[in-house]
Each structure stands twice: as C-alpha cells, then as structure tokens.
Amino acid sequence: GCVVRASVCARACAGCRAMGWSKGMPEDDWQDQKRRNSQASVEGRAVYVRGIPPDWTADQLQGFFSLHGEVEGVNLLPPRQKQPARAAFINFATEAEAKDAAQVSDNTEVEDISGKTFRLSCSLKQAMGKKVDYVSGFSDLSKARQEDRSLYISGLPSAYGEEEVRVLVEMHGIVENIRMLPHGAEVEASCFVIVSTSEEVVSAIEGLDKQEIEGHVIS
Known about the structure:
The chain has 219 residues and is of the alpha+beta class. It has two domains: 28-124, Alpha-Beta Plaits, CATH 3.30.70.330; 136-218, Alpha-Beta Plaits (2-Layer Sandwich). The chain is built from seven helices and twelve strands. The longest helix is centred in the N-terminal third of the chain and has 17 residues, at 2-18. Residues 1-24 have low confidence and may be disordered.
C-alpha cells in the first residue's frame, strides 16, 4: 500500500512541476502560478492541447501559439505511459485569443524532429476541476481540415487582407472562408483559406506556390 501511495504522490508531484506548481519554487511564486492558472481557466483563456510531439518544448509551444495572440503561460504536462503524444494547457491574455487559437489550431498536423506527424486537438478549459469544453471538430476550419478543404498561405505582403487573398484563390476554386492570422505592419501576412473541394486545394497550391507578389514569394 505504501508503495502505491508513494508512486501516486510521485506522479502528482511530477505533474505539478511540469505545470509550474512545484513546491521547489518559492512559496509566493508557487501560489501566484496556481492563481494565474486558475484565473485563466475561469475566464475561458486556457486552451487544452493534445497530440503534441514528445520532443516539443514549452518554448516551441509558446512560439507556435503566439501566432494567435499573447501567450501568458505554457503548462506542458508530463508524458504518460504508452502515449507517445503529450498534452499542455496554454494560457492566453484574452478569451477571444484562446478561442481563436483553439479553433485555428485544432486538427493541425505538426511534426517532431524526426519528421513523424502528429495531429493537434485543441479545446477550451472553462474552469479548474471541471471537464474540458471541447471545440474539437466544431469550427469551420477544423471541419475543413478533416475534409482536406483548407490551405495555409504564407509570405503575403503585410498589407494584404481578406479581399486580396480572395482574388488570388478564387482563380482556383470557390472560397468559403478566409482567416487572416495576426501580424505586425512590417511582417509578412499569412492566412488559412477554406475552399469547397479538396481538388480546389490542390489547384490552388499548384497555382500559387512560389508565386511572387510585390517582391514577396508566397507558399
């Protein structure tokens, strides 16, 4: 019995350390971390992510999700036995950023260092101790990914918006939706585009990849 309890305790402590709640931290810092994680969950600013490559770090996750808003904290959970992928909670500055990140990133394919493919599953955590409110599979972009009807375009001129992107892609298919990703004035624009069929995705990729627009090479 003692061995079992010790094992459970060890796993719990490992989980706390991975989430930044380690008792090895100064008490004030530990309590502050708990408070910030709890507040993010209550306010709907915490995104629960599964399917993370096992070799990804918290810094990589922060860089990946910073495309969708200000990331306040990354809590990478410890790996589980017989489960190659990992999970994490990503805390955003606002509820809108968290929802956008969950919807845009859900069902996204990513790779580990060896090139093995993993598929992210993103959902919103509504409150500490409560079940995760899944958005997986419910956003238009998530559904389009599952049906191979979405494409990602990067390298666009920074001044480009939905109207300019629509003109580009409509030469290759029917555009159902465009989601521009946040970017600075001096940074190239990027976006996700949903079209009506997977064949139109292939046509758009073949027609647009490596095309030069105003000195920018898009991909």
